[in-house]
Specification:
By secondary structure, the protein is an alpha/beta fold. The chain is built from five helices and five strands, in the order βαβαβαβαβα. Helix 1 links the parallel strand 1 and strand 2. The model has no long low-confidence stretch (mean pLDDT 81).
């Protein structure tokens, strides 16, 4: 049986750190990864949902075990729809950990699906998608942070 790890829509594999977490998940936790991009994210990102799905798909275009899809509703409902056996969330620092742990608890209570929290490797821990997006909005070179 194929195990699936679902990355919730709040997880944006836009930086090297996020790509690293996807690759580590495929090495040790799952045969397939579905990256779920919520349709309600237009306001907080520089790209539309469609543009985000397309740009993230390009990062993983050579890996048939990674799929990027848009979805409506709660991540946990989507996880059940696609038969996800595991939800993976990336953690950059200890401040993020408490929040992510709470989300993991809620996800488990609502669906029974376990959540694994993976820390980003130290060299990527300070590079979040929001920092990269802000730098991009000021036309700064962000290539060293992109996958």
């Amino acid at each position: 049986m194929k195990r699936i790890a679902l990355f919730p829509g709040s997880f944006d594999p836009f930086t090297i750190g996020h790509k690293d977490i996807v690759e580590r998940t495929l090495q040790s936790l799952a045969d397939e990864v579905i990256i779920a991009i919520g349709n309600n994210c237009d306001k907080k990102y520089l790209q539309s949902v469609e543009e985000r799905v397309e740009s993230i798909s390009k990062v993983f275009e050579n890996n048939p075990n990674v799929k990027v899809v848009a979805y409506d509703g709660l991540t946990v409902d989507f996880a059940k729809q696609v038969g996800a056996g595991l939800i993976v969330r990336g953690v950059r620092n200890t401040k993020d950990f408490e929040y992510e742990r709470d989300i993991a608890d809620v996800n488990h209570r609502l669906t029974g699906i376990e959540t694994v929290l993976l820390y980003t490797k130290p060299e990527y821990s300070c590079v979040s998608s929001s920092i990269v997006r802000e730098l991009m909005s000021y036309n700064k070179d962000v290539t060293e942070f992109l996958p």
